[in-house]
Amino acid sequence: MLLSRTECIRILDNLLGPSNEEKPTLLGYEVVAETNAIGYLGDYYLLLLSYAVGETSFQRQVFVKALPQKSAEPQKEAIFRKEAWLYETLLADMQAYSTVKWLANCYYTRPDLCVLEDIKLNGYVLGDMEELDETQMLQTLHALAALHAGSLIYEHKSHLNIGDVFGNHLQEVTVSPDIAWFTTGLAAVLAVLKTLPQYATPEYASFMDLKLPGILDTIYEQVSTSTMYRNVLCHRDGWAGNIFFPSKPNAPAILVDFQTCRYCPPAIDLSFSLYMNLTSSERRHLESSCIDFYYDCLTADLNHYGLDATMMLPKAELLQSYEEFRLFAAVYRAVAATIIKVPLAYITNEYKYVDRSSAILSYMQDNEQFGACMREYCGDIMEIAIEMKK
């Protein structure tokens, strides 16, 4: 049994809150698989709660994200525990300091389970997995600005530094020289770069062999807590699959899947979301206005609490760090594409953790759309790397 009756009573009490004059009585509960939700880190369910208040009966539905019951991967389990801890602690505190909603309500957690508001019942929907439109991009940035402002306000109010106090809960688990899925993907990206005709010269070949690997290694520092820039709690995985959009165009999105959260500069989230959710041409077109919009939202949230954004996170610092962290965003987009844009049958353990270069090069030949994406993504990486060496 996934949840006990005692746990369901607690979930119901948290769901209804303290405002009920008469305590509800749980009549029954049922857990059913949520077949429309697919994810790497969890199994998904709906919990149906039947209850009575006095003589009147009601039914409510909540969403359950659970560690796969047959999980034998310690890394997955650590990531899941991290997210459950975040929902139970920091995220709830930060949402309380926000003027807008960017987080699904959490009603119960265990190290292997989170019970959350079913936001789809309130009209939130996933966007296009391939690319967001301009309205959705602004809704995403509104939510990220609220998350970051909540982090800054939390630190101001509590007189705590999130990185110092909670850093042990926020370790990097997806981008590291010790994480095989990432390094194997990075090797595939390098293999693709060496096939691009615009770089088929001895000078570029020497650059890719001798200098590019060292430049790419800097991304491991970029995802860590910065000693140069102001840090906030970042989502660090703001692609379309982790964002639910409201029906109202001026409302922020809801962010989900916080397992890769890090304490790092907000430009990490800003660059990640723009690179992961827009084509290169669309990003170049919208980039400046999107950054302005993000900063205006952040400023408004901080002003609500009497805080000055120009002191806490100067725009010049945001812009400088954004330019620096473009590399991380571009590299992650290309590496992620080798997983999320290939047929499921490709993704064996050998492919994920040992070598995917030959499979990627072959699939680029077989699928023109995928080939065009990889050429675009890898070309962006090379442009940034060449600029960095100047």
UniProtKB/TrEMBL annotation:
It comes from the Eukaryota. InterPro entries: CHK_kinase-like (IPR015897), EcKL (IPR004119), Kinase-like_dom_sf (IPR011009). Residues 114-304 form the CHK kinase-like domain. SMART domains: CHK. This is Uncharacterized protein LOC115630695. The gene is LOC115630695.
